[in-house]
Structures are given as structure tokens and as C-alpha cells.
């Protein structure tokens, strides 16, 4: 046990590698899979060690839950499994290493549920004035944790998609697409939201209108953008559902290209919310859902989640240099502005290393 702790401590003092999205794209070919495997064998333990150590900076009330212990054990176990696996030296080693990190990625898939369970009690206590510092600390640690988690899953997913030939077009390598089209991804997100909402609320009449530039193409990770748009548009849909109105409603999505950003504006007329809530919506300790977490988890079909969707969406945009801003007019509706950074070829994505 002491050896494990000392090994995590040693790797947590090492610095993760600075990466460029364009660089990852350029080496994202079958010919470079051995190089990718060797890099991941060295890099992943460093990133896992940083997060494993940081989990113990959370308050004792969270650390002592069995759910947080599950997360810690999962990270520590993954750290050990990679370090104890032989370093890939030739092409025949690639498959075994890929199977290992694929299994690790799969085991980490539902980790957010354990995080949500571990902090559920804090949601009811941390918004008291005297707990402001505690709330900020929890959000800061979880933001860093999720940012790194996104990076780890992206690096593993990028490697596995190249190994398994998941490229869908000539401009896509692994998970990265040089011709990522926000308009098409918005259409896909809306299609999935319609399907889900019709299963639960078939009587709700919502019209989704996409405006703006249909022909924008830029270097990005489509799966990340899909997550962001799905969560933001789903939130607007849920807000309209909560009105219990028989009237028809619209959700407008406007997509434009600026000098430095792709801007996507999502607008609804669901009544908005007060200014004091605007300060809370990105916090992992806040949720607009009235359902208890265990009730949500045990449902076969879930529309409103466990309170992490908006916070995670912002982290996904931050991960590649973007951001999300929200302006809500109480009594009218809410406008969400998504800024997706247009990434230069030589730009280092510093958030990879958080």
C-alpha cells in the first residue's frame, strides 16, 4: 500500500505534456500507432496521478463517502494497471495495450454518477453564506478533475478510433475533424432531444429553428460539440416542459462565424430565471431538477439529469479555449452564448495539462 502511495506521489509531481490539436491530428494515422501507444503509456499515469492526489483535497464529508472512494480506487487501479503493463516496443504490443486502455475507458464511463452521489448532501448546505469558500473549493477541484478527465478520455478515444479505423471522411482522423460543421451537429442533437422528449412528454409542442451559416467548417472534436449542444438545447427544452403550457414554443439556434470564435446562440422563451440563480447554474452543487438523485439514476428513461450537464458543457468549451455565457431575462426567457475558439495550427491547448 505504501509503495502504491509513493508511486502516485512521484508521478503527481511530473508535468503533463503540452499538446496541440493540430499536432495530434497530423500524427493520427495507422502508421503512428506505436508512437501513440508509447506516448500514452508514459502520459496517462501522470495525468491519473494528478487527479488521484487532488481528490483528497475535497472536504472530509465528500472524501468519506463510499462513492468518492470508488472513484479514487478506480483511478489508483487504472494508474497501476498502465504502469504494470509492459512498455509497447513493437507493433504486436499495440493491440494488448489498446485492449487495456479500452477497458480502463469503459470502467470510467459512469464515474460522474459516483461524483454526483458523493456531493449530493453538499447541495443542501453549501449555499449558506458561511459555506461560500467551501463551495468554491469543491467547484474548483471538480472543474480541474473533469477537465483532466475529458483530456484523458480524448487521448484514449483518439488512439482507439485510429486503431479501429473509425474515420468517417477524408478530413477526420480519430476524434478530430478538420471540417467540423456546427449546423449538422446541432441538427443531430435536436433529433436526439426530440426522440427523448417525445418518449417522456409526447404532448409538448416545441419547434426547433436553426439559423445562420450552414457552411462553417473548422478544426474541432465533433463528439465534444455534440455533448455541449445536446445539454444546452435539452436544458431549454426542459425549461419549456416545466411551464406545463399547452401553447407551442420555439427554441432558436443561431450559428455564426466571428474572427476568433464560432458563436452559437441558443434562445428560449421559457420564462428565464432570477439573477441570483445565474451565479449558481455552472456549479456542480446546483441543479434545477426537483428529483432526488437516486430516483433519476433508477429511471429507464431520463431527461433531466443530476446537475452536472451545464457545468460539464462549459468545461468542454473551456478545454479547447472557448466559453459559455448565459443571459436570462426573468419572465421572458434565456439566451445561452457558446463560444468555440477557432484554433490556430500552432496553438498549444494548455487545458490538456490541467
From TrEMBL:
Record protein name field: [pyruvate dehydrogenase (acetyl-transferring)] kinase
One GO BP: regulation of glucose metabolic process
Keyword Iron-sulfur recorded: no
Recorded catalytic activity of this chain's protein: L-seryl-[pyruvate dehydrogenase E1 alpha subunit] + ATP = O-phospho-L-seryl-[pyruvate dehydrogenase E1 alpha subunit] + ADP + H(+)
Keyword Transferase (UniProt): yes
First-tier enzyme category under EC: transferase
Subcellular location: Mitochondrion
Molecular function GO labels: ATP binding; pyruvate dehydrogenase (acetyl-transferring) kinase activity
Cellular compartments per GO CC: mitochondrion
Keywords associated with the record: ATP-binding, Kinase, Mitochondrion, Nucleotide-binding, Transferase
Boundaries of every Histidine kinase domain copy: 222-344
PROSITE patterns: HIS_KIN (PS50109)
EC number: 2.7.11.2
Family: Belongs to the PDK/BCKDK protein kinase family.
